[in-house]
Here is the input.
Amino acid sequence: MGRIAYVNGRFARHAEAVVHIEDRGYQFADAVYEVWALFDGRLSDPEGHFVRLERSLSELRIAMPMSRAALTMVLRETVRRNRIREGLVYLQVSRGVAPRDHAFPNPAVPPAVVITVSRVDREATEARAARGVSVVTTPENRWGRCDIKTVGLLPNALAKQTARAAGAVEAWYVDDLGLVTEGASSNAWIVDADGVLRTRDTNANILRGVTRLSLLDLAREAGLTVEERPFTPDEACAAKEAFITGAGSLVLPVIAVDGRPVGDGSPGPVAQRLRRLYIERAKATAI
Ligand code: PLP
Here is the structure.
């Protein structure tokens, strides 16, 4: 983790950075967050993340804590102070600090803002992508508004722990219809037996991943047939390839689902190509 955090208008040493015990993020998970990948000290997919942040805040009726331009400056300054070039930037905006009461504070209080930066070892993550990762499936048990990127991540934390305990990297949620929704912290994709690139549509209860959106564009530009259409775990195992996307994982090949190999059990060419294309585009458009 970086040495410096931004907390409500101040930069503080990470080890000493604190939020109030009445922060509604802490009390009620009444907060949203965003995560940007950092390439050479610059924020990737800036537009997508800002648009989603503004939407998450608006759905919860939390005010944007400052203008986009000001927030960009603060994010970049936090990155600069941490002297991290390759990593992740975490932003959390809560409804603010108020005596504990489920209903919103009235009058409204200023939103509380926290930013941290962590380092990513790109060599290690590239090596992991070259090996591929395993996922396990788990029943969908989250609330009905997974399109809002809230810090209410207990089901995701439990699912991730299930994956970890099984030696897997990600857990894929499976809904009542037996269809994969998404991962605990990523979107799920396959290249099906017919060579069609498939990922769940956003009418489903999933997060509209920013990486997912960029990759849909890139894949279409690359001439792939793309469908926002659900798949089952069985279809994933029968698929040619599978992978996950997210600001942390970028494009990460999946080689096994519940211990069953996907395709020939090694990272596939489409996922590897899309990973390269995504990283190239992210680097070229980062700010
Ligand atoms: N789905 C969930 C549940 C997530 O938590 C995340 C990222 O944290 C994603 C998907 C991927 O989103 P993005 O590509 O915007 O990082």
